[in-house]
Specification:
The chain is an alpha/beta fold and about 325 residues long. It folds into two domains: about 35-245, Ribonuclease Z/Hydroxyacylglutathione hydrolase-like (Metallo-beta-lactamase, Chain A), CATH 3.60.15; about 260-310, no CATH class. About 35% of the residues lie in helices and about 20% in strands. The chain has ten helices and 14 strands. The strands form two sheets. Strands 2-9-8-7-6-5-4-3 form an eight-stranded mixed sheet. Helix 6 runs antiparallel to helix 7 (about 250-270) and helix 7 (about 250-270) crosses helix 10. Residues about 1-20 have low confidence and may be disordered.
Length: about 325
């Protein structure tokens, strides 16, 4: 009995010191008092949406993927379910956040413990206040706070922030958050689930799909650096925040497309072509022409890359 008591005491001490088996993170608490009276815009995702397609499907083991929205408008994020609670990435819409919260509770009998923002854009982070009000900890890169406040986005102010890296431990599983470089915004967070070889790479990665519009809020160099980082990771599943999950081959094709687009436009500008000439002389591969939303996005992609090139070359002044 004495030996048993000794082992029990040592085991309890180990769990106390290491935090094993308990939810924990190494994020930095954010002081909410300075934002107590901040102004917010009307929530464009709050209107009732009972017919909005939505789902929570298993990827592997305890890892799931939530979706909301029809067709090209679908938004998605990975969800980790553990006995200590759930971790949700990017709720996307207030009108479906309550459904997702209740779906997790009814199916798995746990509450949402963490909500993680991939970046500070309203179309992905709306609805987080539903989870925060229910006790969840909202996490984001520290660079996401300014646009959330400055743009008066009606969602939750993060509870914890980080600069380059952060680790969340939940139900004995680790979730790794990492900032690579400015890419699709300067607040992008890559979220790794090592146990499942899965990665959340929202809006930076694509799934046989065109980058959105005219590369809104983007940084070309950092985007290529981010895709190179993705290609170096040991992952099989990549959720891109839209459409369907992707593979590293998809991200390699995306990187090559962006490098080629940048080089074509740079060469055409250096050859003295104006916009009216230039956009007619950019060529796309047969593979890219098959990507989702090619018809809607390819001229807009040229426009955005042309703007980047024009603003990031010296030429002859």
């Amino acid at each position: 009995m004495k030996l048993f008591s000794f082992i029990a005491t040592v085991t309890a001490l180990f769990f106390t010191l290491t935090g094993a088996g308990r939810a924990s993170d190494n994020g930095v608490p954010l002081d909410h008092s300075k934002y107590a009276n901040r102004q917010v815009l009307k929530d464009f995702t709050a209107a009732p949406c009972p017919d909005n397609p939505r789902g929570l499907t298993q990827i592997k083991g305890n890892l799931y993927r939530h979706t909301t929205g029809p067709g090209l408008a679908v938004h998605s994020g990975l969800v980790l379910i553990t006995k200590e609670g759930a971790l949700v990435i990017d709720p996307a819409m207030t009108c479906t956040a309550t459904w997702l919260r209740d779906e997790i509770k009814s199916r798995f009998n746990v509450k949402v413990k963490y909500v993680v923002y991939t970046h500070g854009h309203a179309d992905h982070i709306s609805g987080a206040q539903v989870f925060q009000q229910d006790g969840a900890i909202v996490v984001a890169n520290q660079r996401a706070v300014e646009p959330i406040v400055g743009e008066r986005i009606p969602t939750a102010i993060p509870d914890r922030v980080f600069d380059e890296d952060m680790t969340i431990t939940l139900g004995g599983e680790k979730v790794l958050l990492h900032r690579v470089a400015p890419s699709h915004s300067d607040s992008m967070t890559m979220i790794l689930f090592p146990k499942y070889k899965a990665l959340q790479c929202t809006d930076v990665c694509e799934s046989k799909s065109m980058p959105y519009n005219d590369f809104l809020d983007f940084y070309y160099d950092g985007w290529i650096e981010s895709l190179n980082w993705v290609l170096a990771q040991d992952v099989d599943v990549i959720d891109v925040g839209h459409y369907t999950p992707a593979t590293k081959d998809d991200e390699r094709a995306l990187r090559d497309y962006m490098i080629d687009l940048h080089q074509q436009i740079l060469d055409l500008v250096r050859n003295g072509q104006s916009w009216d000439e230039l956009y007619r002389n950019v060529h796309f591969s047969d593979e890219v022409k098959k990507w989702i939303a090619y018809d809607q996005m390819h001229v807009l992609n040229i426009m955005g890359m042309y703007r980047w090139v024009s603003n990031h070359r010296r030429g002859e002044w």
